Known about the structure:
Layout: E1 2-12, E2 18-25, H1 31-43, E3 49-59
Amino acid sequence: MLMKIVFLVVILMPDGELRSKTTIVDTCPSVKVIGDLYTQRMNRGEILDWNASCFPMNFEMKEAT
Length: 65
């Protein structure tokens, strides 16, 4: 089995558009660092809101036949 860690961020833009970014990471980023980064962007009016999640995903490794 192959396990990868996925970091997902969804951002609500001032025009109402939702943007998402998914990244494969070695470890989940610091909640404080990410929170500080996006809170600063909200305070500057660059984004309206955001949410993030980091979770493992497992993949079956099937042999080629």
